[in-house]
Amino acid sequence: MNSLAVALQNNDQAGITAAVTSLQTASSYLNSQETFYGNTENRIASAITQISTENTSLQQQISNIRDTNEVQAALTLTSAETQQQAAMAAEAKRPNTSLFDFLG
Length: 104
Hints:
single chain; mainly alpha; 4 helices; about 90% helix
């Protein structure tokens, strides 16, 4: 900036051109950095949103686990085990014959 002011005061065309070129280079660099950091900021904001959503989901799962009715869960498990045992007993009593037994 100082070199541009000096060049303008001295009416130095080459100095003005060099200073303007330097300013354009600096402006281009600043624009690229702004783009880079803007993209980085967007990625961070997206990650924060995703983490917040995941945190809410996990908190809900924790709440559901803590709010589980233990008596009801035990009854459901016992009922499922009883049904499984009955199905296995029925399978064990089923005859082991196949169509080939009748054709033979």
